[in-house]
């Protein structure tokens, strides 16, 4: 089956004219010798490491993948799309032969595939929005496979309209927003910044889980984009900048090497106040000039213990509660709402939750302010805390018990030099769940535990516990799914049984 590829002619289109004039698709990497000497992808990686020793493993792997596709996976008859940077158009051609090396060409024009160019003046608007999104990849060599890309590009090459693609259940182009994102990153006109929470929402995710992280990380990489700092390691409301991966040597003076850590690998966590608010926060208020009876009526009708009091502009002015009303009536026979208004602490929706617990417990409640730092968006009571933490206490308790038992047995049985290889620097020599997975994937290391368990079954339990633990650490207020709680209980029971029998 015919495939379609995008082959970029340099970050600034420096290979455009030679590619069109010579009938070629040309890759960069001027420092790399003829690819014919590399029989495997691993051999190509080794060659790239020799050519670019300063580059990270991540970037070397990314470059090896692009060159291997250009060298071995691209076939005669495949279609090639080349962005023409200087005129903001595209050319489409058909591959007519095998890869060859051009030693007499300029360094960045030596790796080539012969191409018969079919059209050289295609306006971006001839492609559907989703296809334009795929063509926004910043990689030099990229397979275009999503949404029947090859068939649609063939139609455009023949001068016919892009027939488009739409999922049967979709009522809105699923890639339109992300296509705009790729275009903004490529243009580089202004830094592209957004919070981790907003980034995930582009893919329809509300939480940073193993699945959401792998999905987003993979599609970012597919488009030659990464985030700075890595979106997998910072708080959900931290702003990250989307930047191009080092697409080829010398493409830019500040090419970020992406982190080598596996996405979602036992991330440190901070729980935010917003996590305990409803999905659509709202708060009932009363204006300070209204009668006290209006507040009493509203509190009785809604079964509220307190109300926020605002000024005429809608901004926080205090709170009224049954306690403050009682005190006001003791002090004055006919008190007003202002007489019964007292001051209660107001916190921000993105404050760390744990830092507010003492205030919530001593006062009974606090009001929560939104992103504008002025408007109230919710209330957190001691009952909210008790309900939320009660819901989460059991899975955390079970995971902690299992981890402590696993840590104790590991310290007894596994040499320290092996533990040092899998324990992060901040963990004081203690592996995280991800570290335990990497350690015990080796059957010899697993046998050191001397636990009468099946290696594969134990590893599956450990990986599942790790996934659930990471989901919990990115707490969003969601109840722990029953199947996850059952998995944690099973893992803990297994570790507890063999730990006791090994004493």
Automatic annotation (TrEMBL):
Residue ranges annotated for the CBS domain, each copy included: 279-336
Gene3D superfamilies registered for this protein in UniProt: CBS-domain
Residues of the signal peptide: none
InterPro entries hit by this protein: CBS_dom, CBS_dom_sf
Alphabetical UniProt keywords: CBS domain
Pfam families, per the entry: CBS (PF00571)
Statement: the UniProt record of this protein carries the keyword Repeat: no
Official protein name in the record: CBS domain-containing protein
Organism encoding this protein: Amycolatopsis mongoliensis
Organism phylogeny: Bacteria, Bacillati, Actinomycetota, Actinomycetes, Pseudonocardiales
